[in-house]
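Action item from last meeting closed. Structure (291 res):
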């Protein structure tokens, strides 16, 4: 099982791998550029070389990138739509250069234009991306959302509908977020409920498309439609959903990534990963969750 966390690229993209090693990660998620700017400076040959070398040296892999939060393919604003397209195109090219196999993408927000229109615009943008980059190797992983505001992706059907409208389905995947699906109203705490939720996902989308799993507890209650991440076992979900997830053999090869709050010393990531690992393979002793 590959467990890890999102790591900062501050000071050089290769630093994310070193941070991951310090935080006891098997694998990590990164941004390939600043998330609050549309454009980014090109990566240098030296940066790329060191990024790849540090993975070999440390043994820490890069499971995925996450795209910029500025990108919104569901927007009815044509200018924003075009900026989103160019930015995502750049991110896909950067992933290919860095040999990152997956990029996680929030589907987008329809901003009042309606869900069906928003879903069609998302699929249309992805089709255009794949036509523009026919030899791209990076899989776009649509992330499940909590459904806050007009955000799309809070139902499995939304993700399935987008994938169904994309012509090159071989380049499409899904990222589930435990906090998001819990907040969206998919039960996870009781084992029978967890199994029902996974069964529904498999029926609607298919487990073969699950490429990344974000492991986050939720500060907000079940069905709240609010996206607020909390440390493992310290939120509304508790430990049981994570026990179910890390012991589900069908998910053994799916990278599992923390997106929980942390300081510069990364001790929170170390603690969260320690807790997750303690839940694997029937280690059912009661966990002491410290404040």
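Sequence:
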């Amino acid at each position: 099982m590959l467990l890890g966390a999102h790591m900062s690229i501050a000071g050089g993209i290769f630093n994310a791998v070193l941070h991951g090693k310090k935080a006891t990660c098997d694998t990590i998620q990164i941004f390939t550029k600043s998330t609050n700017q549309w454009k980014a400076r090109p990566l240098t040959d030296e940066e790329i070389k060191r990024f790849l070398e540090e993975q070999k040296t440390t043994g820490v892999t890069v499971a995925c990138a996450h795209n910029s939060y500025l990108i919104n393919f569901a927007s009815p604003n044509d200018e924003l739509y075009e900026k989103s397209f160019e930015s995502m195109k750049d991110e896909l090219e950067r992933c290919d250069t860095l040999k990152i196999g997956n990029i996680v993408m929030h589907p987008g927000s329809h901003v009042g234009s309606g869900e069906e229109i928003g879903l069609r615009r998302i699929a249309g943008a992805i089709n255009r991306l794949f036509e523009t980059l026919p030899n791209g190797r990076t899989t776009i992983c649509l992330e499940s959302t909590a459904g806050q505001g007009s955000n799309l992706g809070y139902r499995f059907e939304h993700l399935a509908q987008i994938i169904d409208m994309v012509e090159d389905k071989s380049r499409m995947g899904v990222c589930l977020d435990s906090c998001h699906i819990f907040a969206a109203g998919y039960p996870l705490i009781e084992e029978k409920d967890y199994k029902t939720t996974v069964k529904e996902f498999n029926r609607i989308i298919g487990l073969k498309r699950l490429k990344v799993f974000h492991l986050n507890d939720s500060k907000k209650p079940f069905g709240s439609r609010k996206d607020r991440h909390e440390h493992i076992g310290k939120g509304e979900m508790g430990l049981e959903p994570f026990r179910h997830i890390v012991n589900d053999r069908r998910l053994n090869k799916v990278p599992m990534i923390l997106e929980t709050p942390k300081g510069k010393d990364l001790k929170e990531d170390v603690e969260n990963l320690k807790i997750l690992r303690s839940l694997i393979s029937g280690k059912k002793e009661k966990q002491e969750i410290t404040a």
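Note appended to the action item: Confidence is low (pLDDT under 50) at residues 283-291.
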